[in-house]
Amino acid sequence: MSVINFKQLRQGIFILLIGLILWIIGLEAAKSFYYFSALIFVFLSLKFLIKSLIDRTGKNIFYSVIYLLIGIFWLYNYGFAALLTVVFIGIYQLFLGIVCIYNFILQYMDKAKGIIYILFRGIFHLIVGLSLFINFRYYFESNTYYKLGLYLVLLGIMYIFDALSISKKYKITTKRKFRVRLPVIFSALFPMYSLRKDNSQDDTYNADFLNKKKLASRNKTVDLEVWVHTAEKGASIAGHVDISYKGYTYSYGHYDVDSHKLFGSKGDGVLYIVKSEDYGNWLSDYHSYKGVYRYGLHLTNEQRLIVEYQISELMSNVYRYELTSKAQLESYLGDLSQKIPTRIYKFNRSRFKTYFVLTTNCVLLADTIVGKTGFDIVSVSGISSPGSYKLYLDKEYAKLYSNVITKKLYSNKCKGEN
């Protein structure tokens, strides 16, 4: 019997329909959406007004007035709403362009290879962003909305395809595929919301699916794990990604606090290797509000050889490093290294020599080790987040015959396996 992810299917159909309307009708459709959004704000105002009458709390009255003012302003100022959309898209494209150019400069200084495409990608995003600001009449034209509609159509198709292919048997391949993903600004906080949801309910997947998943994976072994860290609060809410292979976990980040620059977004790239079992035990005690999702992957012989080759290539550019200063020893990595055996490294050269939070980050390391096995993660924009990684992992786990065969959540509030 075929299994379909109906929740994801509904989301895909909704996104596809919105995209088709924007793609076909353009500006006139955008006007309707803006007016509809204004009515939603008015509806929310009435909702909070009713709650205030029932609960007799001033807080709900405040929200009611705010939503009403936004709704009225939105309803009678369509031009501002349209302009805001284009400005938002333009700023986002400029942001991507600047990040790519800055990343190219960092990679060039670190003598990394094969980086020219980063420069071209940055120039492309800058041209798109600047074109929206040079001529503001675009926000009264349909051209921008046609492009937005096309993007939503492609995104909706990918959602529908994934929902319908859950029970599809397919051969695991090392060939990477083209995928359309949510912008990083929407996926970045996904791990935090997942942790809050899973800590409040245990039935993320129904029993029927879990039984079929175990049956489909009964003859497969977990050869590699992807660990996605997150937290319900604090600096860790955006998440972190580690790779665990043959009993050891590989983690990359800006762990040398003495080298932090740009408010901690940049610094020396640091790699540490630790026994996975010891690491898992330490993590469970480090923060009560943190959680770690561990996704188990089954690999073919060819994929295992690829992973081992990528790890050996990674280790060919490193040297041992020791934490010595007081600030280093009191840091996250300092606490870890003082409690369990930890091998710490820095890079002589390569793209990992300098860490940058938006590009040369933990996701890039994970993709370097696993990506060439066909495990397709990195965004075409060049900016990837642990949230993007988790979205992809969850979609793959929700397919009966994918190579993501297990999913476990380790948290002090919610522990167990799906």
Task: Provide an overview of this structure.
This protein is an alpha+beta fold and 418 residues long. Helix content is 54%, strand content 14%. It contains 15 helices and 11 strands. A 9-stranded antiparallel β-sheet has the order 7-8-5-3-2-1-6-10-11, sandwiched between helices. A two-stranded antiparallel sheet has the order 4-9. A hairpin with a 4-residue loop joins strand 10 (404-411) and strand 11. Helix 2 packs antiparallel against helix 3 (58-76) and helix 4 packs antiparallel against helix 5. The longest helix is centred in the N-terminal third of the chain and has 32 residues, at 78-109. The radius of gyration is 24 Å and the shape is globular.
Task: Describe the global form.
Answer: globular
Poorly predicted segments: 184-196, 198-203
Helix content: 40-55%
Characterize the largest beta sheet: strand count, sense, and whether it forms a barrel.
Answer: 9 strands, antiparallel
**Rounded mean pLDDT score:** 76
Fraction of residues in β-strands: 5-15%
- Measured on Cα atoms, how large is the radius of gyration? 24 Å
Structural class: alpha+beta
**Strand order within the widest sheet?**
7-8-5-3-2-1-6-10-11
| Distance separating the two termini | 21 Å
**What series of H and E elements makes up the topology?**
HHHHHHHHHEEEEEHEHEHHEEHHEE
DSSP summary, beta strand count = 11
